[in-house]
């Protein structure tokens, strides 16, 4: 069983225990002083790794630079993280937690499945704008995962967390089918994965294009992003006329 501290990015300290890829939350108040000190160290190492990765990129970053930024010896750093890959997965997991927190807060305001799905992707764009360097770092995790040797605890937790996010998208689609806001024939499992792949690819290309979108094509980035999000998810929306008929108002 491995204990992983996922940080206080949202002002809340959370500890996860991993056993056979299962996650369970543990109240931080139950931890000993030594465990809390370990959490603080781990948290500082992850923050330092994020800064170094964002500055140099994953390939060019070194454990020496991360240890220096975190103000620990490299030997101490290796006591917490087996290698650079595990540090990268820890940073990426924190990024997904930040994104998930933003999407959850926005989704609570919506009343049906389709509106939740739509607001989730608009909040994805908001995250992209406000955390561009972190987004670039996160978007390469599948490629970096293929380079890593073996699956460490942070990589396992990232994969599980990412899969759970996709399952929540599928749940929104099922909710929309049930409340009539999404086409009933929509395959929730396939659609959730396809939308994630399409949007990740779009934002990856948007990141690579830099300022050329405006300079070469005279396209405003925000309106172009909103147009693309609508292009991807609107085909699944059920018309208001059908909804009204279903409710017996037409």
Your description of this structure?
The structure is a single chain. The protein is 68% helix and 6% strand. The chain is mostly helical and 250 residues long. The protein has one domain (2-246): Orthogonal Bundle (Tetracycline Repressor, domain 2), CATH 1.10.357.10. Strands 1-2-3 form a 3-stranded antiparallel sheet. Helix 1 (33-56) crosses helix 4 (84-107), helix 8 crosses helix 9 (188-209) and helix 9 packs antiparallel against helix 11. The longest helix is centred in the middle third of the chain and has 27 residues, at 153-179. It is globular, with a radius of gyration of 20 Å. Residues 1-26 have low confidence and may be disordered. This is TetR/AcrR family transcriptional regulator. It comes from Anoxybacterium hadale.
């Amino acid at each position: 069983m491995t204990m992983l501290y996922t940080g206080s990015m949202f002002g809340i300290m959370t500890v996860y225990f991993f056993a056979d890829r299962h996650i369970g939350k543990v109240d931080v108040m139950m931890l000993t002083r030594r465990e809390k000190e370990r959490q603080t160290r781990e948290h500082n190492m992850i923050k330092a790794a994020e800064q170094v990765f964002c500055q140099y990129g994953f390939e060019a970053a070194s454990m020496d630079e991360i240890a220096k930024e975190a103000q620990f010896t490299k030997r101490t750093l290796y006591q917490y993280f087996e290698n650079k890959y595990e540090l990268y997965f820890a940073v990426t997991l924190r990024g997904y937690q930040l994104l998930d927190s933003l999407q959850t807060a926005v989704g609570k305001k919506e009343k049906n499945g389709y509106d939740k799905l739509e607001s989730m992707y608009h909040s994805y764009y908001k995250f992209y704008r406000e955390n561009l360097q972190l987004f670039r770092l996160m978007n390469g995790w599948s490629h970096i995962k293929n380079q890593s040797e073996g699956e460490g605890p942070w990589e396992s937790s990232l994969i599980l967390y990412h899969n759970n996010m996709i399952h929540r998208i599928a749940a929104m689609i099922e909710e929309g089918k049930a409340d009539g806001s999404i086409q009933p024939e929509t395959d929730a499992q396939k659609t959730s994965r396809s939308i994630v792949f399409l949007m990740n690819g779009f934002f990856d290309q948007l990141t690579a294009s830099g300022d050329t979108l405006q300079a070469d094509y005279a396209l405003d980035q925000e309106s172009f992003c909103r147009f693309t999000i609508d292009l991807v998810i609107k085909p699944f929306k059920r018309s208001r006329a059908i909804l009204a008929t279903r409710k017996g108002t037409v």
